[in-house]
């Protein structure tokens, strides 16, 4: 094996682990079987956010800690990840999410895991709020992912190189903020996160929204960011402050 293949294997393993940890601990945070009461939106949002923060610290230096096909799409547009590597990232993130979710179902008694869960909805699934039209749900999925990816683009902007150690906590607060405000819309912002519960619960209600919205934002957000905020950087006209 040459170096590039080993590098792809290393990235694949890191992303499988990262996405697996995310689904295992994230979905664990919304179980109601042990306490007999659902967690608050703040509690669930903080749990997902802090898990992501830990995962970024663990894997960002290995694979970039994408966890999310939308972020992979953005890194392609930013010239950070080559298109041929996108398959490695997306496959690893979807596989890791499925493994993490399945592991949770194995180590948790069925009655505890699915306590109070409507079978038509499923456990830890993402479904648009029924009060929304399809167009509204798609817009919210796109726009919330756009918001998140603006921060990703900012993190990769050379002008922010002076503060790389703050990225995990910044990402955590962004997730908490989005969950507290837009969580009631049924957003996901991550196709891999939505795929695993859909597979194991057999619930595919408007699932395509959770691919089209985030991935389209992944391809368009970097274009917008570069056109508006980095238009002069290639000419050396923008200097870090």
Describe the structure.
With 241 residues, the chain is mostly helical. The chain is 64% helix and 0% strand. The chain contains 9 helices and no strands. Helix 3 packs parallel to helix 9, helix 6 runs antiparallel to helix 7 and helix 6 packs across helix 9. The longest helix is centred in the N-terminal third of the chain and has 26 residues. The radius of gyration is 18 Å and the shape is globular. The N and C termini lie far apart (44 Å).
E-strand count: 0
Q: Radius of gyration in whole Å, from Cα? A: 18 Å
**What class do helices, strands and sheet pairing give?**
mainly alpha
> CA-to-CA gap between the ends?
44 Å
Mean pLDDT: 90
Query: What are the low-pLDDT stretches, counting only 5+ consecutive residues below 50?
Result: 236-241
Please state the overall shape, judged from the principal axes of the Cα atoms. Answer: globular
The amount of beta strand, in percent, is: under 5%
Largest sheet: none
N-to-C series of helices and strands:
HHHHHHHHH
Helix segment tally:
9
Report helical residue fraction: 55-70%
What does the secondary structure layout of this molecule look like, with pairings?
Elements (H helix, E strand, L loop, with lengths): L2 H26 L12 H19 L9 H9 L5 H25 L2 H4 L20 H23 L10 H16 L8 H11 L7 H21 L12
């Amino acid at each position: 094996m040459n170096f590039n293949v080993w590098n792809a294997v290393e990235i694949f393993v890191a992303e499988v682990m990262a996405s697996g940890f995310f689904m295992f601990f994230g979905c664990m945070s919304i179980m109601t079987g042990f306490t007999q009461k659902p967690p608050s939106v703040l509690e669930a949002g903080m749990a997902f956010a802090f898990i992501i923060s830990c995962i970024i610290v663990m894997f960002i230096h290995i694979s970039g800690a994408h966890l999310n096909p939308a972020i992979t799409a953005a890194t392609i547009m930013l010239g950070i990840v080559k298109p041929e590597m996108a398959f490695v990232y997306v496959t690893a993130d979807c596989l890791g999410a499925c493994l993490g979710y399945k592991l949770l179902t194995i180590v948790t008694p069925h009655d505890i895991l699915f306590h109070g869960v409507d079978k038509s909805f499923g456990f830890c699934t993402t479904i648009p709020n029924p009060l929304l039209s399809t167009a509204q749900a798609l817009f919210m999925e796109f726009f919330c992912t756009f918001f998140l990816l603006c921060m990703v683009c900012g993190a990769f902007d050379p002008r922010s190189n002076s503060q790389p150690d703050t990225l995990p906590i910044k990402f955590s607060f962004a997730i908490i903020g989005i969950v507290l405000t837009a969580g009631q819309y049924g957003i996901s912002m991550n196709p891999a996160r939505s795929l695993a519960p859909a597979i194991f619960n057999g619930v595919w209600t408007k699932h395509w929204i959770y691919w089209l919205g985030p991935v389209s934002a992944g391809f368009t957000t970097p274009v917008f960011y570069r056109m508006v905020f980095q238009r002069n950087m290639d000419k050396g006209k923008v200097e870090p402050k």
